[in-house]
Design goal:
Layout: H1 2-12, H2 15-18, E1 47-48, E2 55-58, E3 64-66, E4 79-83, H3 87-93, H4 98-118, E5 123-130, H5 138-161, E6 164-169, H6 177-190, E7 196-204, H7 206-222, H8 233-239, E8 252-255, E9 274-277, H9 287-298
Parallel strand pairs: 4-5, 4-8, 5-7, 6-7, 8-9
Antiparallel strand pairs: 1-2, 2-3
Helix pairs in contact: 1-4, 3-4, 5-6, 7-8
Length: about 300
């Protein structure tokens, strides 16, 4: 509560910043974990014994998680990616300081992590901070970094208990040193967890991801490790930053706040993803909105270029 008031005071002291008309596309918000369903607390739990009725047993446990009746377990996407947009607009619509929009966004992150874990989604990737976001006012960037670091530090033990693995993609070398150290700790502490893989894109650029993969491959050709004829899409995918993920290509991309663009996010990996654009601002994106996105996904035919049946 004290930190929330501190943020409030900081924003009130920067009225010029608060009145900036440009919206925040990919706000970096807290990853504070909610109280998760009791069966999720078993450390390193893995989803198994899935049936078509939408019931998932964890490691043979008798406890079960029932999906909403609108959803089918066997049609659930393995990897969901989210562009979290609209925290600032949400606050402005209510006449609130932008900091309180971020605070409201925290609840949405907590909720989405809980729901994805309980509903059997294996990978959740959140676009937290774009490499383009450094162009924003320094006070805004500083607050976002501070909020991220404080929340992750507070909740790291909970992530471990809940069996959530954390990975970071993006160039973390430009982040504050204390945040870099905390991210390294989070990755190492949770690397054996398997219930939900939470991937956070921080200082990430989809274009740069492809460029660095090509540079790595070019160096291997120069060093005689591979030949140019060996270069294919599979090799490029292996050099992308998402090579730390069992399912590196999202099945479903969700973007909130009504924007209809990718904003330099996972450009290679989203080649065959289904896209869902929600008009809800990120703080308002909850269970009903996620259910709508997943239901829409489950009603689509993913053809990958094949003729429809």
């Amino acid at each position: 509560m004290a930190f929330s008031l501190q943020l409030h005071q900081i924003f009130l002291s920067h009225t010029r910043f608060c009145s900036q008309p440009k919206s925040i596309t990919n706000p970096l918000i807290s990853l504070k974990l909610p109280s998760i369903h009791p069966l999720a607390v078993a450390q390193n739990a893995a989803i198994s014994n899935i049936d078509s009725a939408g019931v998932a047993a964890i490691d043979g446990s008798a406890e079960e998680v029932l999906l909403p009746p609108q959803l089918r377990r066997e049609l659930m996407p393995k990897h969901v990616a989210v562009i979290m947009d609209g925290n600032r607009r949400w606050a402005k619509m209510r006449g609130l300081p932008v900091a309180l929009g971020y605070e409201a966004g925290i609840r949405a992150v907590r909720n989405i992590i809980e729901l994805c874990g309980n509903w059997g989604i294996r990978v959740l990737t959140l676009f937290a901070f774009s490499s383009d976001n450094w162009l924003r006012p320094k006070v805004e960037v500083d607050i976002l970094m501070s909020l991220f670091e404080r929340a992750l530090n507070d909740e790291l033990e909970n992530f471990s208990r809940a069996g959530i693995q954390i990975s970071i993609i993006g160039d973390s070398s430009k982040l504050p040193k204390s945040l870099q150290d905390l991210l390294d700790k989070a990755v190492k502490t949770t690397k054996e967890n398997s219930r939900l893989h939470l991937v956070v894109a921080v200082n990430y650029s989809g274009q740069h991801d492809v460029v660095q993969a090509c540079q790595t491959i070019a160096q291997k050709v120069k060093d005689g490790i591979i030949e140019t004829k060996d270069i294919n899409s599979f090799l490029i995918e292996q050099e992308l930053q998402t090579n730390c993920i069992d399912f590196p290509c999202p099945d479903l991309l969700i973007r909130t706040s009504g924007e209809l663009r990718l904003s330099n996010f996972l450009l290679w990996q989203l080649a065959y993803a289904e896209l869902f654009f929600s008009h809800s601002h990120w703080p308002d994106f909850g269970e009903a909105e996620l259910m709508e996105a997943l239901s829409s996904f489950q009603q689509r035919q993913r053809r990958y270029g094949r003729q429809s049946s």
